[in-house]
Amino acid sequence: MQNFLLDAEDLDALIQAIRAPGRQLKGPILRDGAIVYDDVHSANDLPRGWTDVQEKGTYRVVKRDDDAFFGYAVGPHSWKKFLQLPRRLVWKGQKNTNGVQICEVQEPVPDLAFIGVRSCELHAIAVQDRVFIDDRYRNDSYASRRANLLIVAVNCTTAAPTCFCVSMHTGPQVTLPCDLALTEVIEGTQHYFLIRSGSEQGARILQQLPVKPATDRHMEQGENAIFQAQEQMARGVRHFQSEDLKELLYRNYDSPLWESVADRCLSCANCTMACPTCFCSTVEDTTDLTGEHAERWERWDSCFTGDFSYITGGSVRADTRSRYRQWMTHKLATWQDQFGSSGCVGCGRCIAWCPVGIDITEEVTRFREMEKQ
Ligand code: SF4
Ligand code: SF4
Prior knowledge:
Elements: E1 4-7, H1 11-19, E2 24-31, E3 34-39, E4 50-55, E5 58-63, H2 80-83, E6 87-96, E7 99-104, E8 112-117, H3 119-132, H4 140-147, E9 150-154, H5 165-168, E10 180-187, E11 190-197, H6 200-207, E12 212-213, H7 216-234, H8 245-251, H9 257-264, H10 270-274, E13 281-287, E14 293-300, E15 310-311, E16 314-315, H11 320-339, H12 349-352, H13 360-372
Parallel strand pairs: 2-8, 8-9, 9-10
Antiparallel strand pairs: 1-11, 1-12, 2-3, 4-5, 6-7, 6-14, 10-11, 13-14, 15-16
Helix pairs in contact: 8-11, 9-11
């Protein structure tokens, strides 16, 4: 697919072309000391000149020494909050003279677009598609939001020390289908985007932009920028072999190392809330004081909460050891049997947002080292 050149100062033309048919555009913004995903109305909303500094249990934003729009890795939010809503009304029931009338709630489905989706995040959306659309139990709310979604992806040119998409083969270069893909290049005084379309919708938007064909030199600069992110990870402490993770964890189901992680884990569920692939939810039924009106709500839940696995008088995972083992083994091993892919895309969110700094890649290494001993 041919790449074109879009001057950085014309990025707003792209944003307005996406929003023109009444689409709601979601993208990165700076709020409350973090880069989060929310409404984007113009290029001025983007976190231009900001980056994130991340490590185990640590996240903060700092100024960059350039004006990059997408010069950060990933923050606490993921795109799942717009597709699998954190809380939604499923049905309402009303008592009347004829008995109880149940009314399923069809929430309005906005025409959505995302800008700034990273390669690992595209893989995470593909994982959730597999769960919510392609599996036996289709989630109509997710499927309707996903149906007309327009995705503008961005190749990563800066990796955080928590990123390990190279190990999970999910990045940093965008390889999965998307409507438009951008690569941001800052070279001396030049600041531009390489842009290519990957769908008819994307091509129609591209036609409206003040672009010119990219030269070989521009393409080379774009590839160098992505390679830089790849190299940062390949040399990083979190670079590891992922091919045998399933067998490794199955062999270590009864390892004493689970006790050691349980000693540190707070069972707070932060990792599952931040993870872009975690999809567990629960339903809650409520009634009003008159007992005549009832509602069923679906909301995000986590395998780290006691109630989540509570069945007829007890929890099947009563301690933190079994909860952490369930989470990590599901992500890296049983997910492969269940869905045919890894449940982890290597985004590193669970590492940065774990309040006690538990690092899933370190835990993998500990199992390998123990086996060697
Ligand atoms: S398990 Fe951690 S690194 Fe893997 S996708 Fe989830 S948040 Fe990202
Ligand atoms: S691993 Fe960390 S983020 Fe996850 S539940 Fe335990 S303490 Fe919380």
